[in-house]
Amino acid sequence: MVMSKEETKERVMAELEKVIDPELGVDIVNLGLIYDVKLDEEDNATVVMTLTSMGCPLAGTIVNDIKMALTELQEFKEIGKVDVDIVWSPTWDKSMMSRYAKLALGVHE
Q1: pLDDT digit string (tens) for 3-22?
Q2: Helix spans in 1-109 (H)
Q3: What sequence ranges are listed for the domain MIP18 family-like (predicted)?
Q4: Is the distance from CB of 8 to CB of 78 less than 8 angstroms?
Q5: What are the boundaries of each domain within the chain?
Q6: Looking at the whole model, is its pTM more than 0.70?
Q7: What is the fold of 5-94?
Q8: Which residues fall within 8 angstroms of residue 7, CB to CB, at 6 or more apart?
């Protein structure tokens, strides 16, 4: 069964919810760090994301964790190659977090 691009993106996002920010202990999706998942014609995936700060010492760890989380989708040929594109615009702030992440981290608005 061939999935639509939208279904594939949803599967990728579900897998990315398993990637936990090592400093904050909340997944990168609920933290609002994932801006987009782009799929090309061959279903190669580019995860467009940011980090909570430019000097994040764990950037490499998070990128590796993303690639590991998506390995199963690659094995089942749901996606091809995985790239991670770290961007700084728009700048991340606490308002991008989900309600769950705000509750988990005790963030009050």
Answers
A1: 899 999 999 999 999 999 99
A2: 5-16, 59-69, 71-75, 99-105
A3: 9-77
A4: yes
A5: 5-94
A6: yes
A7: GMP Synthetase; Chain A, domain 3 (3.30.300)
A8: none
